[in-house]
Every structure is written in structure tokens, then in C-alpha cells.
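Posting for a labmate who doesn't have an account.
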Amino acid sequence: MSKIGILGTGSWATALGRVLHDNGHQVLLYGIDQNQIDDINMNHQNSQFFGDVVFEEGIKATNDLKETIKDAQYLLITIPTQFVKDTLKLVKPLLDKKITIINASKGFDLGTNMRMSDTIRSVLSEDEIEPVVSLIGPSHAEEVAIRMLTAVCSVSLNKECAKKVQRLFSNEYFRVYTMSDEIGAEYGVAMKNVIAVAAGVLSGLGYGDNSRAALITRGLSEMVRYGVKKGGKFETYLGLTGVGDLIVTCSSVHSRNFQAGLEIGKTNDAKTFMKNNKKTCEGIRTCRVIYEDQKQYDDIEMPITEAIYQVLYEGKEPKEEIKKLMLRELKPEQ
């Protein structure tokens, strides 16, 4: 049995905590929302995310970061990407031995736009942590929490560390594959959130299955072009962290990025949503990061990302941007 400290008391923290508890491990969730902490400890629920789903008594939560890290062999990150660096700075002085960091957050650092693995390594040195592992792929916490069949990837530059995390999480309903393309996988699971916002916009505007199929397919093409340019492998985008995560995020009501796009599409305007949104929608910020970064390359086209950027940040109407996409210069598919 291992002890795993989990950064976060949200939906993903609780769902993965159940997976680990089911596998016989000790888990302790760290959070700053006392209502969530009390709900987990006293009611064995996380009702904000899962309604009346009851969790095991062994899944505990605390607001004491030192207690979370004490005697832990692993530290699992499930918090929004914009908080990862600052939280790890709090973790750093509390480490008294090497620990394995498992990243389950998808996106980029708020200040530097670095991938999550690079962000972790920028705070914690190789003397403090084992090689970073990312646990990512097509997975909604709402389904994992009730033990629906799910497959994800354990991604690391170190194959043995990837296998160690694979064994830690794998069971009869949660299957983990290993892979080593850290760059490709992390860009894939980040960028698919942008395409998911676009999918929500289409649905909000009333478009149907044909439109979504076209969007997912052409969105995958953008992911491949950009990801390979950044150093990822083409094959990665045909797997769980590529097309797999893209399909589930563009097709599910559980996706916060899809829901964000849906609200925008229904009003044909992003201004109100951008002003009032309080939920974490990684795709909104990721869109800006990708859009600004891709401008340095003259040989890749990313029309969907550019259209969503125009809607989110330049006040353009979604209907008009979709019309522009459909009227682009005709060309072969590949």
C-alpha cells in the first residue's frame, strides 16, 4: 500500500482518490474550500460535483498541506493549471525525501505558458522529485467516480516511472497505458479543449452531427500540425491523448469547455459569458496561448483556433466566423 497526497478537493481529485482507494492505497486530499473538505470527511460526499454519490470513509480531506505530504510516496496534481506553480512553491519546503509527482491537469502555466511537466520541473528539482508522470486521456470525473470503464495514459520521459503509475491506478474499470511522448500528449490534451469550445458553439447555434463530425476531424488536423511542429509525434494524436480525448471533450455534457461554447453559441456572442464566467474552462485561456504561439510559424494553418480566438477575444460573432470557415479557399483535405 502506498500513501498518495492529492492536491485538490474537486471532482477529479475525488474521482481519482476513489480509484486509488479501490486499489488499496491511502489517499489524503488537500484543499482550501472548507465546505468541500467537511463534505468529504463528514458526509463522505462531494455533493457540489457528484450530487448524492457516497464515497468510502477512507477517502479523507484536509486543509493542512504538510499533513498531505507527510509519508506520501506520490503527489497527485488535480488543481487548475493556473494554480499549479504557486501551490508547488508551498510544497517545496515541506519535502523531506524524493517523491513522484503525478500530473493530472491539462493546459499551460499562467505566467510562462509552459507545459505542465516543464512547469513542475521549473519549481521542483531532480533532487526533490522522481521523473514527472502525467495521467491524462479521455476521462470525465463524473464517470470515473461511479466506476464507468475508462482508459487513459501514464506519460513520462522515464518508462519505469510511467509503469509504476500505470500499476498504481489500473484496475477492472480504470485501464492505464504507458507512453513516452510527453510533448505530444501534453499539447494534445490541452489543445483539444479549444476544439471542445468550438463544438459547444456549434451546438449552441443549432448545428448537428454533420457539423460536429467535420469540426472534430478538422480540429484533429490542427492538433497534429501544431503538436508535431512543437516536437510531438504524429502517432500520439491517433491515440488516447489525441483523438480519444478530443472525441470525449467535444461530445459530452460533462465537458466544461463544451458547456462554455454552448452558452456562447446560444447567444451568438461571447461578451456576457467572458464577463460572468466563474468556472474553470481551460480551453478559453489555452486558445489565447496557442493562437499567439502559432503566429511564429509561417507553415501551419489553424483556422478553427483562430476563429475561436476572434469570438472569445475580439468580439466577433460566432455565426460570422463559422461562415468564414466554410468559405475559405477550396483545397484538398490533406
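Reply:
Got it, the C-alpha cells are right above this. The mean pLDDT is 95.
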